[in-house]
Specification:
453 residues; alpha/beta; Rossmann fold; 2 domains; 7-stranded parallel sheet; 16 helices; 17 strands; 16% strand; globular; binds adenosine monophosphate
């Protein structure tokens, strides 16, 4: 099966080719014909499934007929990053068509957005708050909208955007095509769907897709040992682009700073940053300037960065949905990836819910030797084909300093204030740190096993 079956206009086919899409993804196969027919859609699918092209391509085809220079399509997304990403996908796919798109969100000046609308954009990709600002100032009209897309509707609901969405919908013509996509279908979203969709075609993509190509490992670790564990993993694992999730903005910021101190090209993506700095962090990560991005769920939701090799849940998220979204950042488009989750006793309940949803248990790693000082090495851009997950690195320098840091810096202090020695007694100067291979670590029954059940 390929894209020719949809009979897209040659200018759209050129966009598909430029993006190197050869075979439609399952959601594209299901959604494109129905959207081309003009039907409403209720789509149960998450980001990472090819959902954006599934609605953008048929909308472009429909926009080729009809007037130009008016807002004829409105796409509403929960976060600025997702709005920017959808806008960027449209720009690529529509390059030959002359159809223009503008992204509208808060945190940046209104004027450039308005100029683009007034220059005649046919597609507006907007976050609800800023869009309502423009509408209340009567900056432009949505009276000509023919297609409305609500993307990541469940996330919009989580963020309290349902009332703003209802207000936006009031500004649209009743006679329009409406497409609603959501990764999950809580009652409130189903209710909204019933209100605003007219005999929708239902398209659904299995929820577990992103995890199929992602190897999952669960680390039992108490809060105060997470940083040591992270450094240990990063020093001994072949990692490409790595996305680390924390629960709060503050933790994202301070973890990124800590990693920078240890020589990693790391940055954070969280809501305390200005929009410009958020975009800088994201672009820097996409372009490889930063190898590590530490993010909160809100900031990272829906971001599409190809080639993420590792996702690390430094903090376990509060919901199964958030976990699925995080893990979906790696293993995209049939690539493989690894996901490491750091969990403490307090996370038992959510871990069991996550595993129920995964349909399997994650591999347990309960035997990580945290007492050793961890040599930090440069974070390589390239991933080797091998997976030397626990390859020993003899970069402890004479004098007991690893990469210039005092040996035992991370060692826990005992009650007398003395540093505890690594398990097995003090290491000889220049000696190779003791590592276990991965299988041995995973099979080991010793260590902290509170998440083993
Ligand atoms: P999305 O779910 O829209 O975020 O898409 C996830 C990723 O898949 C993006 O990087 C898209 O560019 C890519 N993609 C979308 N459709 C296809 C396709 N038919 N073939 C290959 N990659 C695709």
């Amino acid at each position: 099966m390929n894209f020719t079956q949809f009979d897209f206009h040659p200018k759209i086919a050129a966009g598909i080719k430029a993006c190197n899409y050869e075979t439609p993804t399952p959601i594209q196969e299901q959604a494109i014909p129905a959207i081309l027919e003009g039907r409403d859609i209720l789509g149960l699918a998450q980001t990472g499934t090819g959902k954006t092209a599934a609605f953008v391509l048929p909308i472009l085809q429909r926009l080729l007929d009809g007037p130009r220079g008016k807002i004829r399509t409105l796409i509403v997304a929960p976060t600025r990053e997702l709005a920017e990403q959808i806008h960027s996908d449209i720009t690529k796919l529509a390059r030959q068509t002359g159809i223009r798109s503008v992204a509208i969100y808060g945190g940046v000046s209104k004027l450039p957005q308005l100029k683009k609308v007034r220059a005649g954009a046919e597609i507006v990709v907007a976050c609800p708050g800023r869009l309502l600002d423009h509408l209340s100032e009567r900056a432009f009209t949505l009276a000509n909208v023919e297609h409305l897309v609500l993307d990541e509707a469940d996330h919009m609901f989580d963020m309290g955007f349902l009332p703003p969405i209802r207000r936006i919908i009031k500004a649209l013509p009743a006679n329009r095509q409406t497409l609603l996509f959501s990764a999950t279908m809580p009652g409130e979203i189903l209710h909204l769907a019933e209100e605003i969709l007219n005999n929708p075609a239902r398209v659904q993509i299995a929820h577990s897709r992103p995890t199929a190509t992602v190897e999952q490992v669960l680390f039992s670790v108490e809060q105060d040992r997470k940083m040591t564990l992270l450094k240990d993993i990063m020093a001994t694992t072949d990692m490409g682009a790595t996305l680390i999730f924390t629960r709060t903005k503050y933790r994202a910021q301070s973890l990124a700073r800590n990693l920078q101190k240890f020589g990693y090209a790391a940055t954070s993506l969280q809501g305390n940053l200005s929009q410009n700095n958020r975009q800088k962090a994201l672009n820097g990560f996409k372009q490889g300037e930063f190898k590590v991005l530490v993010a909160t769920d809100i900031a990272a939701r829906g971001i599409d960065v190809s080639g993420i090799s590792h996702v690390i849940n430094y903090d376990v998220p509060d919901t199964v949905e958030a976990f699925t979204h995080r893990i979906g950042r790696t293993g995209r488009a049939a690539c493989t990836g690894e996901a490491f989750t750091f969990a403490g006793r307090e996370d038992r309940r959510i871990i069991s819910l996550i595993e129920k949803s995964l349909g399997k248990k994650m591999l347990r790693n309960n035997d990580h030797d945290l007492a050793e000082d961890v040599p930090v090495r440069a974070h390589s851009t390239e991933r080797s084909d091998k997976k030397p997950w626990h390859k020993a690195k003899n970069n402890v320098r004479p004098g007991g300093r690893a990469n210039g840091r005092p040996a035992g810096r991370n060692a826990k202090r005992d009650a007398t204030g003395q540093k505890e020695q690594p398990a097995g007694g003090p290491r000889k100067e220049g000696a190779r740190p003791k590592r276990r291979n991965r299988a041995a670590m995973l099979n080991s029954g010793s260590g902290n096993v509170f998440l083993n059940q």
